[in-house]
Amino acid sequence: MKVKLIILALFSINICIAQNYNFGKVSKEELQEQFNPQDSTANATYLYKYRKTYFLHHNNEFKLMTDVHERIKIYNKEDSDFATKEINLYEGNGRKESITGLKAYSYNFVDGKITETKLKKDGIFETELSKHYNQKKFTMPNIKKGTVIEYKYKIESPFYQNVDEFIFQHSIPIKKLEIKFEYPEYFGFKANAIGFLTIEKRQDTRQDKLTIESKSYDQRFGVKTGTNKDELEYTSNIDIYESNNIPALKNEPFVNNINNYRSLAKYELAYIKYPNSQIKEFSTSWEDVVKTIFDNSDFGDELKKSNYFKEDVNALLEGVNDPMEKAGLIFNYVKTKMKWNNYYGKYINVGVKKAYKEKVGNVAEINLMLTSMLRYAGINANPVLVSTRNNGIPLFPTIEGYNYIVCAIELLDNVILLDATSKYSTLNVLPVRALNWKGRIIRSHGSSALIDLYPKEMSSHTSFMSINLNDNTGIEGGIRNIYTAQKAMSYRSRYVDANKEEFIERLENKYDGIEISDYTVKNELEFSKPVIESYKVLVENQTEIIGDKMYISPLFFLTKEDNPFKLETREFPIDFGYPTKRVFRISINLPKNYNVETIPEAKVITLPDNLGSFKYNISANETSLQIIISSEINTSIIPSQYYKVIKEFYKQMREKENEKIILIKA
After folding, report:
1. Is-contact 461 629, C-beta < 8 A?
2. What's residue 15's pLDDT?
3. Separation between Cα atoms, residue 339 and residue 365, nearest integer Å
4. Could you count the other beta carbons within 10 Å of the beta carbon of residue 383?
5. 364 exposure class (CB count in 10 Å sphere: 0-12, 13-18, 19+)
6. How far apart are CA 403 and CA 210, in angstroms?
7. Which residues, 6 or more positions from 455, have their beta carbon under 8 angstroms from its beta carbon?
8. Is 299 within 8 Å of 346 (Cβ atoms)?
9. Can you say how many angstroms the Cα of residue 228 is from the centroid of all Cα atoms in its chain?
């Protein structure tokens, strides 16, 4: 047996050695592979992922170069997202990144032969994402089940201080990973690694030369006499990351952003030290980062502008003295006047003055405008830098760590957060996109501090249900839902601008064809009040009759059976977004010819450390049943060490909600 294992291992090594990763050398074996041997659930796999980032000296300056070569196997045509590649390119201060040398092919195995299809110009697209970002995107042609795609390109960047993250893990497996970062000894980089998967770094050095050109002049007449070329030897530092069979990073329920846990290395430029020159230090602390952002004319200077709104704000606040009433009026004014163009950013695009005139702006323009107006009204308001959920958590000091702005009003014992990009938000109720751990407030005198973005107020959804059972299997009755805080904002964002008939139709389809009538909504535009939704329902097949007994699920069509937590273990925190409370108060009127035989026992489940609870109680009399079911999660984020407790909590909760009430014919 040991001999067989040794032979098998040697055979595997030989296959690995024989694999050709040169561009265009796709093998028949790769094309015929039906699934990833390490992960049969994967819809695609990186067969080869290569990136080399290095410095190139040209015209007496360094540029940052990145070579990319990727080969991907598509197992399932229906899930071919990886057949499209998006590359974001930055530009600013008259300079920009560019992409060159793009070559891309799709390979298929047809009638015993390897066929290739070249990417053509009609499959390449360029889009302006914002003032500073353009995107180049290409979609590979002739994608089928079993296709292998391969592409390579080069990115040239004058922004050598910004090195893109080296990503080691994706949502699909990687069979072969090769990454290199080469940088001259003059550049001091800090390497920060995150993620639960560790890829060991191997370091090497190499002696290189660069040519420095200088002009010579005749000192008497100031006339150029020639060009001098001097060669300078230096040491290149080389960081190498290599690995095989890297597992996919798979998403799980209640994860704010899976990228926060992706394995990667982030390099931050700490200093530059050229020969015979003084050291130049870059952002190495959050204080440096904040100062850099605030001193940028597209941020700090915009806060100082007020002439464009003075007349309007003076009229708005005439006769109003209470500071919080002023804040509410200004907040609602900005929400009503301004339309968000869906662009994120901590810097303005067209500027607050033009945005105000045109009534549309990006995040920075709208919320810097809001902050400036509040300050003009004498309110202690400051901008708060935020990293949105899709941007990840800024673990290390970096200017790129923040991509969003909200506003904070600081009182003696409280901080109130505002975001005027969402017209349905209220004081201290931010859109979910901005609920991402902590933000960094920037005060007018230059200091900064971390503040918690997650709300403390419970967001609730309470359902009052009055249900009549008929002696068949259907039910009819009325439902009244009350939504508060984030739940109310979420409801308003779905309902207010929607086609009402389509909204009701989607609700009917969500619950598998219930019939809804007399649908009404109150307080949809009165943001200080809860949203109240009411309607009547008629639903068939909601009970089960066997012999002389009727079996009822207390929540009827609202019953949930699955436990969202299915994995045995979990490494990521459980992020619910905000504290929540769900309550059902149900009154069931019994058919005249049925009596109650059995009702489920009452139950209370309490999570440790006051994390949450579940309460279940049913009482019965001769004509009706009264049911109260409530569940609470008291904190936005629960650490992963509580995962097994949370999983068991949801298991018991679902089991209890699905216990049957049994009626018997009189």
Report:
1. no
2. 43
3. 11
4. 28
5. buried
6. 37
7. 428, 429, 430, 435, 485, 486, 578, 579, 636
8. yes
9. 52
Do 414 and 332 touch, CB atoms closer than 8 A?
no
Looking at the DSSP bridge assignments, the partners of residue 479 are 465, 535
The CA-based angle 249-250-252, given to 5 degrees, is 135
- DSSP letters, 23-40, are TT---HHHHH--SBTTBT
pLDDT (0 to 100) of residue 214: 65
**Angstrom distance (rounded) from CA 277 to CA 317:** 57
Q: pLDDT tens digits, residue range 620-647?
A: 998 999 999 999 999 999 999 999 999 9
CA dihedral 381, 382, 388, 392 (to 10 degrees): -140
The answer to whether residues 462 and 474 touch, using CB atoms and an 8 Å cutoff, is no
Q: How many CB atoms lie within 10 A of CB 481?
A: 18
- The 10s digit of each residue's pLDDT in 302-330 is 999 999 999 999 999 999 999 999 999 99
CA distances from 248 to 36, 194, 632 (A): 11, 16, 33
Six token digits for residue 378 = 């004498």
The 3 state secondary structure assigned to 220-231 is CCCEEEEEEEEE
Spatial CA neighbour of 66 closest among 92, 101, 41: 101
Per-position b or e across 33-71, b if 16+ CB within 10 A of its CB? beebeeeeebbbbbbbbbbbbbbebeeeebbbbbebbbb
Rounded Cα distance between 121 and 174, Å, is 29
Yes or no: say if 396 and 192 are a contact pair by the CB < 8 Å rule.
yes
Condensed to tens digits (0 to 9), the pLDDT of residues 413-436 reads: 889 999 999 999 999 999 999 999
Q: Given this model, what pLDDT does residue 223 score?
A: 62
Residue entry with tokens 């560790």: 198
Q: Is 256 strand, coil or helix?
A: coil
Tell me how far apart the alpha carbons of residues 80 and 148 are, in angstroms, rounded to a whole number: 11
Tokens representing residue 496 in the block: 């207010």
| Residue 341 near residue 361 (C-beta atoms within 8 A) | yes
